[in-house]
Structure formats: structure tokens, C-alpha cells
Design brief:
The complex is a heterodimer of chains A (257) and B (322).
Chain A lengths: L1 E6 L1 E3 L22 E3 L1 H17 L2 E8 L4 H10 L3 E6 L8 H13 L5 E5 L9 H9 L3 E11 L2 E7 L5 E7 L2 E5 L11 H6 L7 E2 L1 H4 L8 E7 L8 E2 L4 H15 L4
Helix pairs in contact in A: 3-4
Chain B lengths: L3 E5 L1 E2 L2 E2 L2 H12 L6 E6 L2 H11 L4 E6 L8 H11 L5 E5 L2 H14 L2 E6 L1 E6 L2 E8 L4 E8 L4 E5 L15 E4 L11 E7 L13 E5 L9 H11 L2 E4 L1 H5 L20 E5 L5 H4 L7 E6 L6 H4 L2 E4 L2 H13 L2
Parallel strand pairs in B: 1-4, 1-6, 4-5, 5-12, 6-11, 7-11, 14-15, 14-16, 16-17, 17-18
Antiparallel strand pairs in B: 2-3, 8-9, 9-10
Helix pairs in contact in B: 3-4, 5-9
Classes of the chains: A alpha/beta (257), B alpha/beta (322).
């Protein structure tokens, strides 16, 4: 099976405090730790596991800048066979539909049975996979947390509300967005990264892809921190004082039995 | 202004909470709009939900056919492509169904798509300014959407106040005959119910809930110890279950359990809306987190800036000494 996995380099929210910069035009990017989007990492692991079972190869693709190459290498160190970097100054500030348009052009340059994305990334929209499927006229399933290969079909489980699972048959080619927890992504060590350090990663520009992106229909204007209600009353003081206050509150609220 | 539509989700013959919330979303887009609800499904449930929706929407389009018995987003998308006019603005709940349905719908309608909208700021001609969140709710953004070709707007459940007036007295039109070709290449098979775990966190009054801040599986012990000292039970946020450190049945959130405790100790939990969506009944929430920017501090009543790995054992010791 030929599998394409779409990945993105994002600030790691587990490692960073995300703060708005002075004029609200961006988040503070200095000292941010970047990594591969967590959902995408599960998607790559799933693709590798499928190919380990039924054969085939995994290509990881990203839309980004020069620095995005590092996440492709990381996923190749994990076991993806090929990388593909879609990179052009014209790609700055593009919206989800434009990203999907670029990926569609990249898909057309190969022959894939299955395309995976993460269920969402830093923007939280979860839109690129579904858009790409519609552009390619292939079926789509989102929030997938199990995949079983069954000939030219897949049996996929979607995670829905309440921890329940919706089982579907889906024909290939198709696009699936992958939910975290579908597998346990393998560890990538320094040695693995070194192994793929000199592997050539092809780079495609807007003209290589032959796409006209047009204008973004959806544009972010600013970042801000909302003032929601009064927020928490912060307990201050030494840890003994804080604990004493907290215990009093817990007693009143029925938190201690 | 383009016509506004709202897709009504329902289970067991009852419309989802978003049904009444989207009435107010639509008003924010166009205060005077006569909004059309779309209800799809099969059997008597659809009639019931359509009648219910007519109390809040000027017009209800009802599609009642076997192909729509289960809300398979691939089928519903095809239906909406067949029946929606060009340039329509359609509101859809941003739940696991809406996430499945909407991005592709916007492509097929050649309209704009905006996901997980929590507020509508203003509409100026063909530009709609909305509020979204990024980075798991740590920052918000204003986003402009070009609605000149219509828009698919996914609305966060719970973000808009429900319109309970139910005084519109709208009409229901059975459009089942206009559904068109609904054949797709994805077939719904069955629902698999969540497994029941060793403890039922939905019935507990006091929860010690741990998130990413616990850092390591071995550290779960300090949460267990605290829970024991308090007479509470340990629950968790999604990353803990993804890491397989606790069972799915312990997970609080829209994709896990919905809990109604009296006291909720959020330990090293950032507080994404998916997590908070699983906490009902307005409990007393204590947030303990070393990141004061975490969204949990906006919804908690009491906050403590601390590393839970240090703080929880100290708290346990103090409670044990009472």
C-alpha cells in the first residue's frame, strides 16, 4: 500500500507557554520549542504499522518553510520511506483550503492508496483532510482511532462523543484524519535522526506544483487573550499557607471525606 | 445577506443542545434573518425533531429517508450539496459529526469554511469577523471570513447562549423527495459503546484529575495517594489515556466521560474546551498548574501556581495529618 501522511511543524504546547506578542500580530516565537504536530505523529506511526503488515511505502509531506524539513526527517527516522517538502514564500499566511490545494497537487504527482492527516494541528480547525478528500473526490473519515485493512477496503473506527466508536467500511483511495491514542508512536533516538540526516528530500515550489492559490478566504487578523469571567482566585503565600487555605476551602465544599 | 441555514443534530428524537444555540449564532450574523433548519434522518424521530425545531426556526426542511437513518457525514454532505442554494451560510455544530462533515462540504459548495467558532464579532458586507481559539485554547484570534460565496460555519457547542423562547412558530416542509442521489463510498456499520471501567467516575463527588503535568506513569502514585487521603477517585485528561497510563473510562471530556462532581481538582491539566465539555453541574474547580497561562485558570474558582509533582505529595501529607 502506498500511503501519504501530511504532517506539520508546530510549537509544542506541552513544552511552551503560548503568549501573545506586544501588538497582537503573532504569538511570541522566540525560544519556542517546535516539534511535529502530535496528531500527525500518530498518523505516521499508523502508516508505518500498516506497511509493516501489508507491505508498501510511506511518504511524509509538509507545507512549510526550510525549517519544516526537520519534522520530515524526524518522521523518516521513525520509519517513513520518503519525504516531500512543499516550500515557497508564496505559502506564507495561506488558509486551510489553500493548504489542501497544495497537497492535492502533491498527491497528483504520486499514486497513493491512502492519505492520512492528523485530526487537527495548532490552529485547531481540523479542516485540511476533509477538504483534500473533497478536492480529490474520495471518501473521508475523521477522528479515526482504529484501521483494519480488508482487501481494497478499510474498516475504520471513528472516535465520537462519550468515548463511543463508530465503525465504517471505507473504500480506497481515501483520506483519514487520525486521532491521538490510535497507537503508541515509536521512540526516535538521535541515532535514528543521524541515519536519515543526509537523505535527499525533494522540494517543490508553487510553480513546480503548478497551482494558482488565489486569495485566502479566511484570514487571521490578530491574537488576543480573552477575558473570560473573573478567572480563578489565585492562592498565594508559602506552600504551607496555600495548603492550609486549600484544605479549608475543600472542607467547606465537601472535598474531604 | 445570504440565506442562513442551521443543521440540527439529534439523538433519540431529541434535538442536540446546539439547535437552540445556533438560533443566537444566526442572530449575531443577521439579527433579522429568517433562518431555515435542516433535519435529516429516518422514521418518527425526524418528524418529532422537525416539529421541535419549528418552534425556534422560521422554516424547517425535513429529509426523512432510509439512507439518512444514521448520520453518516458522507451521506449528509451529499444531501446538503444537492439541496443547499449557492452562497448559503450554513451553521453546523463543531462536534465529531460536524468535524467529519463540514470541511469537505465547503469545498463542494465552493464557499468559505471556518471551524470551531466561539463568537461572531460583526458582519460588514461580505466580510464576517469571528472569534476562534488556537493552541488548545491558550490564545484567541479574530478571523475574517469572505462570505461572498457563502460559508460553512462550524459552531462550538456551548459557546452561544441557547435561545429558549421557542416562539417562532415556523413551518415544516417535507423535502424527502428532493434528497437526490445519496450513494457514497463509506458505509456505517455499527456503534461500539465505550467500555465500562473498574470505577464509574460519573458517580463520584470528588475527583482528583490528572493531566500532562504528571509527566510520567510512575508519578500517578501521587495522585492515587491524594485521592485516597481525600476519599476521592482519580480521573484524567486525554493525554493520560493516549499514553495508556489509565483506562479510557477514567477520561473526562467530550470524547470521554461527562462527570458531575461537587469538587474537581484539576492537576496539571491545561483545560481545553474538549476537556471542560465533560464537566457539568458547576463543581468547585481547583486548578493546580505550573503554567499560569493555562486556560484552566479562567474557569477554575481557585488557582494554585505550582508543579503538581511537588505540590500533591505535600497536600496529601497535610490532609493525612488532619
Amino acid at each position: 500500500m502506498e500511503i501519504l501522511v501530511c504532517v506539520k511543524r508546530v510549537p509544542d504546547t506541552a513544552e511552551n507557554e503560548i503568549e501573545v506578542n506586544g501588538d497582537g500580530s503573532d504569538i511570541e516565537r522566540d525560544d519556542l520549542v517546535y516539534s511535529v504536530n502530535e496528531w500527525d505523529n500518530y498518523a505516521v506511526e499508523e502508516a508505518i504499522q500498516i506497511c509493516e503488515k501489508v507491505g508498501g511505502s510511506v511518504t511524509v509531506v509538509t507545507v512549510g518553510d526550510d525549517e519544516s524539513e526537520e519534522v520530515l526527517r524526524r518522521e523518516m527516522a521513525m520509519g517513513a520511506d520518503n519525504g516531500l517538502l512543499l516550500c515557497d514564500e508564496a505559502f506564507e499566511g495561506i488558509d486551510g483550503k489553500q493548504t489542501a490545494t497544495l497537497l492535492k497537487a502533491a498527491v497528483a504527482k504520486g499514486k497513493y492508496d491512502l492519505i492520512l492527516t492528523g485530526a487537527q494541528a495548532d490552529g485547531g480547525a481540523g479542516q485540511v483532510g476533509g477538504m483534500l478528500a473533497a478536492m480529490l473526490d474520495v471518501p473521508y473519515a475523521s477522528l479515526v482511532n482504529t484501521i483494519d485493512v480488508d482487501g481494497d477496503k478499510l474498516k475504520v473506527g471513528r472516535e465520537i462523543e462519550g468515548g463511543n466508536q463508530e465503525m465504517n467500511d471505507i473504500s480506497m483511495p481515501c483520506v483519514l484524519s487520525i486521532q491521538t491514542g490510535i497507537n503508541e508512536p515509536r521512540y526516535v533516538g538521535i541515532r535514528g535522526i543521524r541515519k536519515v540526516a543526509s537523505v535527499e528530500i525533494p522540494e517543490l515550489s508553487a510553480s513546480d506544483l503548478g497551482v494558482d492559490l488565489g486569495d485566502a478566504k479566511v484570514k487571521r487578523q490578530d491574537y488576543f487573550v480573552p477575558e473570560i469571567g473573573e478567572g480563578a482566585e489565585m492562592l498565594e503565600g508559602s506552600s504551607e499557607e496555600i495548603i492550609a487555605k486549600l484544605i479549608e476551602l475543600l472542607k467547606v465544599k465537601g472535598g474531604l471525606k | 445577506m445570504a440565506d442562513i441555514y442551521a443543521y440540527i443534530t439529534h439523538t433519540g428524537g431529541v434535538a442536540g443542545d446546539s439547535s437552540l444555540e445556533m438560533v443566537n449564532t444566526a442572530k449575531k450574523i443577521d439579527a433579522g434573518a429568517a433562518v431555515t433548519a435542516i433535519v435529516t434522518g429516518s422514521g418518527a424521530d425526524v418528524d418529532k425533531v422537525a416539529d421541535e425545531a419549528a418552534a425556534s426556526y422560521a422554516k424547517v426542511l425535513k429529509f426523512n429517508t432510509d439512507a439518512l437513518a444514521y448520520p453518516n457525514a458522507e451521506v449528509v454532505r451529499k444531501l446538503l450539496i444537492n439541496v443547499l442554494p449557492k452562497n448559503a451560510i450554513i451553521l453546523i455544530p463543531h462536534d465529531t459529526f460536524g468535524m467529519d462533515l463540514s470541511p469537505g462540504l465547503s469545498i463542494k459548495l465552493d464557499s468559505a469554511f471556518v471551524a470551531d467558532v466561539v463568537g461572531i464579532e460583526e458582519v460588514d458586507g461580505t466580510s464576517m469577523k469571528v472569534i476562534r481559539q488556537e493552541y488548545s485554547g491558550m490564545v484567541s484570534t479574530h478571523v475574517t471570513v469572505d462570505i461572498s460565496n457563502g460559508a460553512v460555519v462550524n459552531v462550538r457547542p456551548g459557546a452561544f447562549i441557547p435561545d429558549e423562547s421557542k416562539s417562532v412558530g415556523g413551518t415544516v416542509e417535507d423535502k424527502s423527495g428532493d434528497a437526490g442521489d445519496l450513494s457514497v463510498n463509506r458505509t456505517f456499520l455499527e456503534l461500539v459503546e465505550a467500555e465500562v471501567g473498574d470505577v464509574d467516575i460519573t458517580k463520584e463527588d470528588v475527583l482528583v484529575s490528572v493531566g500532562r503535568g504528571i509527566e510520567d506513569e510512575d508519578n500517578l502514585e501521587i495522585a492515587d495517594d491524594l485521592a485516597k487521603a481525600m476519599g476521592a477517585v482519580v480521573s484524567c485528561s486525554r493525554p493520560i489515556v493516549d499514553a495508556k497510563w489509565l483506562e479510557k473510562s477514567r477520561q473526562v471530556g467530550t470524547s470521554g466521560q461527562t462527570v458531575k462532581p461537587k469538587v474537581y481538582l484539576a492537576c496539571g491539566i491545561s483545560g481545553s474546551f474538549q476537556h471542560m465539555g465533560g464537566i457539568k453541574g458547576a463543581p468547585f474547580i481547583v486548578a493546580i498548574n505550573k503554567n499560569v497561562k493555562a486556560p484552566i485558570f479562567q474557569v477554575a474558582e481557585v488557582g494554585i501556581e505550582a508543579d503538581i509533582l511537588d505540590f500533591l505529595p505535600e497536600l496529601t501529607e497535610a490532609i493525612e495529618g488532619l
